[in-house]
From TrEMBL, chains A, B:
The lineage of its organism: Bacteria, Pseudomonadati, Pseudomonadota, Alphaproteobacteria, Acetobacterales. One of its GO terms (molecular function) is L-glutamate N-acetyltransferase activity, acting on acetyl-L-ornithine as donor. Pathway: Amino-acid biosynthesis; L-arginine biosynthesis; N(2)-acetyl-L-ornithine from L-glutamate: step 1/4; Amino-acid biosynthesis; L-arginine biosynthesis; L-ornithine and N-acetyl-L-glutamate from L-glutamate and N(2)-acetyl-L-ornithine (cyclic): step 1/1. The gene is argJ. The active site is at residue 196. It catalyses: N(2)-acetyl-L-ornithine + L-glutamate = N-acetyl-L-glutamate + L-ornithine; L-glutamate + acetyl-CoA = N-acetyl-L-glutamate + CoA + H(+). It is found in: Cytoplasm. This is Arginine biosynthesis bifunctional protein ArgJ.
């Protein structure tokens, strides 16, 4: 990057972070691409830590994604190594070799099997990963491991992000306190499935892998798979959760166990908070946009319609221009290919129904709509009038900032 | 529009236009939305003229699209009335009434059935069409009808277009000269199917409707359905052809008749020329981009992959920044959902293969690639290495101009 990007106007401050028993993190400057900042994070997990993950569906995934999918065939995790600046994508056999080398070096240092080391890389596609620099930085990374390393880790994984992203929840399972804490990065090439995005959550809860995986998969649907910045799906996306099991909670083997309800809600909430931070840091974003679709033929159909609106450049540029151009919303519904009946369609902006049953609402009050469009959080509601299907997705506006950032990313 | 847009750097001059026997056109200022320019075109066709059409697949089409689909249940056309500035979309029952009123008034003036009058409207969605102004302008439009009215007609249908678009071909059917001439408009909300776009072609050839419709449908696939500016599908798109039958060509009832081969090629060529003019006038465009996909599992798959690349904001902004960011092309292939094998994928820019068989080409010559990216016409080739499927699509880059135009369209 030629110069640092201005911080997103939608940025959120880092929350009050705590520690997760059994997790230590560190961040170092390995000089992979960026100068004068950290670009490599290492997390160490206590033996017995269980992992679950959700990975990009892009058909050309990066080597680290392939590595992690393979590593997840056993439930255990002892380390997570993430670099920023180079995505290790489309790097052929050399890319897989780089993964093996990095995992082996980490495993040797932490005295664990290579398969218990999870890897991620984010940044430019198609350039060979300078694994020697990563491996050379590992001893310093190990020396810096600390239970308080969360904020530094959140900073080290940033690429075009303009603020570090983290969230925390304290809840109970069966009356026993457990904690969930996570970090994320992502700001461009963000679209389902999933956002261009790395997100790592840890908890001290004691949970078997099937429960953990099931919680993560379902939480991802309503969070990271319901956001889009630019409709582009990264080759490197991943969301992982690590459960150290050091809390005193009772054993749970069923994801639907009522004792897990509070934890599930808190995890979903934390995932959504992290996902919305990614949208808030959408490249060039000045407005966070929530699109709620109701009355569709199914939830699936509602989700597709909502994404079609959220990905429409014309809808997004209108929002950037603070123009309540509901006609473009109608266009986006129509182009989705999903069942829609023009004469039952209604559109609201900021809670004011502008169009109802196929026509503009005569003499609707424009003043609150105009005021709403000037705000930082925009709400668009669409009712199809066909059935009970509903969905919510989030996106941001499309501005000059997006063009600035992406027209010169590699220069 | 607050102020006129600068003419696209990719603009083409109007070609040397001729007349089509049996077609007279005029353009007038009806004051629908724009001031100080024409915004209504009328074309009159000689009795016996045959029409064929292709219309938007958007599920929320404008009232004029519904009108035309209905009018096309008989093959005859006597008039075409097109206004710019108001799309007459999402205007409920009033929108259909406006169509009926405009068609009736035109039919009365030209002494023909209302069903032989074709209508189109382009511009803002959701505002009531001021049909009284259109109807009031009809007598002047009739008075101005002229065989030489083509250029004026091309100007009258422009909205955010920055240059008028027309093309002409002179060919033979069975040794007898016939002519094809057409005009088009479109620059934003342009994506299959079809471009946000109006295109009208006339010919003096004598052809039955089934042949005409079949020629148009197939010509549209390789032209207007192979372009995209911003992935948004308009509610008003249409492509029509009118054949006056005043030429001396022999009768043809089979679209595959060898006597029609030259005409078919010329028509396809003219449709592609018009479609590329629409891309050349893509909102904010500074580069025309051709994406050629080969080696896909099928032509259909190749077409979807090509569109996925062409619609990727990250690919388009990279091109705007003259950055040969082939990694984003790989990402777009991967997100298409079509069969792709990372390790067989190759990418070329400007004829230089940068990536082959899943990895970057070691020491490829960057100089010609850098030079190519600075040009106005960019060529991206992707080979999947899987089968014989191929497709070509065209798009433009995504620049600050697009944001400028669409962030303030209604203001």
């Amino acid at each position: 990057m030629a110069k640092p990007l201005p911080v997103s106007p939608l940025a959120r401050p880092l929350p009050d972070l705590a520690t997760i028993a059994g997790v230590r993190l560190s961040a170092v400057a390995a000089g992979i691409r960026y100068q004068g900042r950290t670009d490599l994070m290492l997390a160490e997990f206590v033996p017995g830590t269980i992992a679950a993950g959700v990975y990009t569906k892009n058909a050309c995934p990066g080597a680290p994604v392939l590595w992690c999918r393979e590593a997840l065939t056993t439930p255990y995790a002892r380390a997570l190594l993430v670099n920023a600046g180079n995505a290790n994508v489309f790097t052929g056999r050399a890319g897989m070799q780089a993964c093996e080398d990095c995992a082996d070096a980490t495993a040797q240092l932490l005295n664990c099997p290579s398969q218990d080391v999870f890897l991620a890389s984010t940044g430019v596609i198609g350039e060979k990963l300078p694994q020697d620099r990563i491996i050379a930085a590992l001893p310093a990374a190990k020396a810096g491991l600390s239970e308080d390393g969360w904020a530094n880790a959140a900073c080290a994984i940033m690429t075009t992000d303009t603020f570090p992203k983290a969230a925390r929840r304290d809840v109970k399972i069966g009356g026993k306190p457990v904690r969930i804490q996570g970090i994320a990065k992502g700001s461009g090439m963000v679209a389902p499935d999933m956002a261009t995005m790395l997100a790592y959550v840890a908890t001290d809860a004691k949970l078997p892998q099937n429960v953990l995986q099931s919680l993560l998969t379902s939480g991802c649907t309503q969070s990271f798979n319901s956001i889009t910045v630019d409709s582009d799906t990264s080759t490197s996306d991943m969301l992982m959760i690590f459960a150290t099991g050091l809390a005193d909670n009772p054993e749970i083997d069923d994801v639907n166990d009522p004792a897990l309800a509070e934890f599930t809600l808190a995890l979903n909430d934390l995932l959504l908070e992290l996902a919305l931070m990614v949208v808030r840091d959408g490249e060039g974003a000045t407005k966070l946009v929530r699109i709620a679709v109701t009355g569709a033929e199914s939830n699936f159909s509602a989700h597709r319609i909502a994404l079609c609106i959220a990905n429409s450049p014309l809808v997004k540029t209108a929002i950037a221009g603070e123009d309540a151009n509901w006609g473009r919303v109608v266009m986006a519904v129509g182009k989705s290919g999903e069942p829609a009946d023009r004469d039952r369609l209604s559109v609201a902006i900021g809670g004011t129904w502008i169009a109802k049953d196929g026509g503009v609402v005569e003499n609707y009050d424009e003043a609150p709509v105009v005021a709403h469009m000037k705000g930082q959080e925009i709400e668009i509601a669409v009712d199809l009038g066909l059935g009970d299907g509903q969905a919510r997705v989030w996106t941001c506006d499309l501005t000059h900032g997006y063009i600035d950032i992406n027209g010169s990313y590699r220069s």
